[in-house]
Structure formats: C-alpha cells, structure tokens
Amino acid sequence: MQTLESMLRNSLWATALSEAELDTVARQSHERSVPVGGYAMRCGDPAEHWVGVIDGLIKMSVSQADGRLATFTGVTAGGWAGEGSLLKPGPWRYDGVAVRHSRLVCVPRYTFKRLLTTNLLFNHFLLSHLNARLSLFIGLVEYDRLLGPSARVARCLASLFHPDLYPRVGNFVQLSQEEIGLLSGVSRQRTNEALHELERAGLLCVKFGGATVLDLNGLRSYNGAQADNSARAA
Description:
The protein is of the alpha+beta class. It has 2 domains: 4-141, Jelly Rolls (Sandwich), CATH 2.60.120.10; 148-233, Arc Repressor Mutant, subunit A (Orthogonal Bundle), CATH 1.10.10. 45% of the residues lie in helices and 24% in strands. It is built from 10 helices and 9 strands. The protein has helices at 4-10, 19-28, 83-86, 109-118, 120-146, 149-159, 177-184, 188-200, 216-221, 225-233; strands at residues 30-34, 39-41, 49-63, 69-76, 80-81, 95-108, 172-173, 204-207, 210-213. Strands 1, 2, 3, 4, 5 and 6 form a 6-stranded antiparallel β-sheet that branches. The protein has a 3-stranded antiparallel β-sheet with strand order 7-9-8. Strand 8 and strand 9 form a beta hairpin. Helix 7 crosses helix 8. The protein is globular.
C-alpha cells in the first residue's frame, strides 16, 4: 500500500529536492482520509495545503446556489492539486470532492512557500506543472463547447493519462461509469453508450470497474462515431 512518504518520494517534483528537504516535507506533512462525498477542499475555506492523492479520486468542481454544477477535472492517485491557490493568499475558489474514498497527503502552505523561495529546481517543476494544468483546462473548455457526449467522454479519459499531472496511471483507468459521467459532464446512460462506442472503435476495452485504454492517441483525437466512420470510408 502506498504511504504518505512513498507518495512524496515518488512524486515528479521530489527529484528537485535534496534528501534533507524531502525529509522536512515528509515530517511537516500529514495524511487525511476523505469519505465518498467528503471535501478534500471546499470553496471559500482558507487554502492552507498543497494536496496530493495517495489513492482515490477527487473531483474538482464549482456549484451554484440553484444546484447547478460544473466539473473541471478529476485528480487521480499520484496527482497534485491546489498549487495555484497557494501562490497567493486567500480561500479555495472551487470544491474538491471525493468521488470514492480517498487518502490524501497535505503539504502545509509554509512548507510549499519555503520550497518556492529557496529551490530553483522546484520552481522549474512548478512552472511546467502549471503549464500542463493550463493546457488541460483549455482543452476541457474546448471539448465542452465543441464536442458531443462520446467525444467528451473520450477526451476526459485521455486527460487522466497526462504524464506530467498523473504519472502513476498505467493503461487501466479504475473509474465506474458514474464517475466517468461526473468528470465528463455526461449522464450515466449516455456515458455507457459512449464507452461502448469507443470500444467498438478499438480505443478501449470496457471492464468491470473501469476500462483498459488500447489507443491513447485515438482517444485524444476522437470526434465521434460519425467522424470516425467518415475517416474510415475515405
């Protein structure tokens, strides 16, 4: 089982730290257990920790008073969230909700800030990480506005395999159809249809509790069955 310390030491940014720095981060950090539906971070609360997912899945979203919900992305095991909010004082501007029972490592703001002000290599990592996050969000906005449900499911799944954001993901994504629907902004029934459409296209294999990705580049470029059939006919 992954521990707090092994999560820290296996993170991409750990290579930027000396052994003494890494020991300090591990000593000052703590683990949290968040049940399904619990908050890893809550909009309006003070942003006081950089949050890493040891195992589980956190859905990043915003909600309105009338119940409307917009989901940005999911953070899977090995991923980190909240760095943008720690770069300036203030509260969380979004919710991080556990889609399944999740274990988190919480790096305090003062520890994060000390690395930021004293370690140039950590700064280089953080710039690359923020750029990857920005590219992901720009893509998600594009998909939501321009693509149909099946293509949104495909791009959502592909986004969970970003090597700079989720380095521990293999070729199997452990998500239920309901979880995929929540992250894609698609109903559960339509998600089921989309997954089988993607399976028929040879891009993934649907299994109990998730899906095995067979063609990651195909998922990243998928535009829907009609576009896929047109391309084959040509």
